[in-house]
Amino acid sequence: MVVLKGNNGYILLESLISLAVLIIIVSSYVEVTVKMQKDSQQRLSSIANYRDLYNETRRCRLHSVSPVEPQIEVSLEQGRASNRQGGILIVKK
């Protein structure tokens, strides 16, 4: 059996390069996945806020509550909706 003593360093170097490439790929995948999850959670939170504001508005319209000052304000120019009673503030970015 022939043993190539000169190639041992090259095999180690090749293994280290492969490991480095694999670590880079995995870390970039994890980074992208975490960012996508954060974006998804923000969207779900925004949808929940809009749903709460819709339900409050619907409840006020159905029961025809007439407060002294308006509790729900919607400004399309500023991209903003607020509900003073429930403390909900939705701002469109």
Short structural summary:
The protein has 93 residues and is of the alpha+beta class. Helix content is 60%, strand content 13%.
Walk me through the topology.
Elements: H1 8-63, E1 72-75, E2 80-83, E3 88-91
Antiparallel strand pairs: 1-2, 2-3
> What is the C-alpha radius of gyration, as a whole number of Å?
29 Å
| General shape | rod-shaped
Q: Record the strand order, biggest sheet.
A: 1-2-3
Reading the helices and strands in chain order gives HEEE
Q: In percent terms, what proportion of residues is strand?
A: 5-15%
Average predicted confidence as pLDDT: 80
Number of strands: 3
The overall number of domains is: 1
Taking the alpha carbons of the first and last residues, their distance comes to: 70 Å
Q: How does the major sheet shape up?
A: 3 strands, antiparallel
What low-confidence regions span 5 or more consecutive residues with pLDDT below 50?
none
Structural class: alpha+beta
Number of helices: 1
Helix residue percentage? 55-70%
Q: Please, could you describe this protein's structure?
A:
The protein has one domain (7-91). The chain is built from one helix and three strands; from the N terminus they run αβββ. It has one helix at residues 8-63; strands at 72-75, 80-83, 88-91. Strand 2 (80-83) and strand 3 (88-91) form a beta hairpin. The mean pLDDT is 80.
